[in-house]
Design brief:
The complex is a heterodimer. Chain A is mainly β. Chain A is built from one helix and 27 strands.
Chain lengths: ~375, ~90
């Protein structure tokens, strides 16, 4: 099953066992901007959906029956009311949803724009601020670039499967950070990550991670697709390696998504985009392709069989590329032009399974219930 | 008090556009609406009690920018999902 969030609503695609035939359910919430739609892997049935409309403020909806019925959060993510003389912040959109550790059923994290972190203990019905981020880390890191025009984004809330208190997050723009106490305190984790858009060389923070991913089978392995390249970090080391330097020079290593192989921590996929000069944010030269490494980033292979060979000027947003858990692993991505492409052989061959959708923001794979 | 709602809020009222409201201020009217239609207030008023960017309030035809604006029982309050251009 693919859970698809778009600029104009959500769609659920269900396939046959071979992943060849797909049927669509939806649109759900037609006209809503749906940034993220996620199934809770802990119960296999709860769906959370982050939505807003052009006019109305942001909220979260929850379904307990695979998307047939939805209930709005009683208390959506919202910053605390400002004290007198203080400029209060307002959540403009809920951008990211992450289930918490398996030991904490019904606990979720949400990341917002402008960057804010929220936690729910009741399956998404009510949300509370993570004060250690909203009042602690956030105001202390905005000195580098200030708040960006469309609002900074808190994304990639990664929860260590071994320890519910151990979190990583990415802030665009702000950098990568780690907490060992469930978000009460944070420290920067950006060493050797480039930030060519900042005047300062080797800043402690202020970087622009586009997406981070932690491998559940090797939780000390973290990958990052950054505004300035593709990186890998093997804890307890704190220095990132720019594995994107091994990508073909003419393609570069700029993009949004990074996708993990579910069973091989050395295998990931990225989807490069044009990050030159004015940042077209299209496929390089209009020729889209995924790139795969099977050796942790030492070498990369282009995978474009079945994709348009020219004049395809779309790209893939950070939440819009995913792997399923099947064998062989399936890959699925949604484009900024409203197409969904799928591979049932780990990216060797691609076929289009949907077109004419709105701009796609997120695609997540989940077992069908 | 006659209250007219914009279509983006119909999911809260079951499609009802007009209703009888109550309250001595816009803030109290919003409390009244929230008690009847849970969740509605947050969609049009942010957590700092600011009217959201694309929402407008008109009382007897005049634009109102603050929630402490006083209301009378025979007022007409129109909530508009303002045009965003284009």
């Amino acid at each position: 099953m693919l859970l698809v969030g778009t600029r104009k609503g959500a769609f659920i695609y269900r396939s046959d066992a071979a992943r060849k035939k797909w049927r669509v359910e939806g649109p759900h919430f037609l006209g809503n901007v749906v940034n993220h739609l996620v199934l809770d892997p802990r119960d296999g049935r709860t769906l959370l959906l982050a939505a807003k409309t052009g006019h109305l403020g942001p909220t979260v909806f929850r379904s307990l029956d695979g998307g047939r019925n939805w209930t709005e959060a009683k208390q959506p993510p919202a910053f605390r009311k400002a004290k007198d003389g203080e400029e209060g912040r307002s959540v403009q959109s809920v951008f990211w949803l992450s289930p918490a550790n398996a030991s904490e059923p019904d606990a979720w994290y949400a990341g917002t724009a402008p960057a804010g972190m929220f936690r729910s203990k009741d399956g998404g019905a009510t949300w509370e601020e993570v004060a250690g981020f909203n009042d602690g880390l956030y105001p202390n890191i905005m000195d580098k670039v200030g708040e960006v025009p469309d609002g900074s984004l808190l994304h990639s809330i990664l929860v260590d499967p071994r320890d519910a208190r151990h979190l990583y997050i990415g802030i665009s723009t702000g950098g990568s950070f780690e907490s060992n106490d469930r978000g009460e305190t944070w420290h920067a984790l950006n060493k050797s990550v480039e930030a060519t858009f900042l005047p300062e060389k080797n800043p402690e923070y202020g970087h622009d991670p586009h997406l981070m991913a932690l491998h559940p089978l090797k939780p000390d392995r973290v990958y990052q697709q950054n505004h300035c390249g593709i990186y890998r970090l093997d804890r307890p080391a704190v220095e990132w390696q720019r594995i994107g330097l091994n990508m073909p020079k003419e393609v570069g290593d700029i993009g949004f998504p990074v996708v993990l192989h579910p069973r091989d921590p050395d295998c990931i996929w990225v989807f490069p985009m044009d990050g030159t000069e004015v940042w077209p944010r299209t496929s390089p030269e209009g020729k889209p392709a995924a790139y795969r490494t099977r050796d942790g980033g030492k070498s990369w292979q282009r995978q474009d069989r079945g994709l348009p060979s020219e004049q395809a000027w779309w790209t893939v947003k950070r939440q819009a590329f995913c792997a399923d858990a099947c064998e062989p692993v399936g890959l699925h991505f949604g484009t900024t032009s409203g197409e969904i492409w799928s591979s049932t052989d780990a990216g060797e061959n691609w076929s289009q399974i949907a077109a004419h959708l709105p701009h796609i923001y997120s695609v997540t794979a989940a077992p069908d219930s | 008090m006659r209250v007219v709602l914009p279509s983006p809020l119909f999911s809260y009222t079951g499609g009802q556009q007009e209703l009888d409201g109550a309250g001595e201020s816009v803030a109290q009217l919003l409390d009244f609406l929230e008690s009847r239609y849970p969740g509605m207030r947050h969609r049009i008023i942010d957590e700092q009690d600011r009217i959201r960017r694309h929402i407008r309030f008109f009382v007897n035809g005049d634009g109102v920018a603050h929630l402490d604006h006083r209301l009378q029982t025979d007022d007409e309050v129109i909530i508009v999902a303002a045009l965003s251009g284009g």
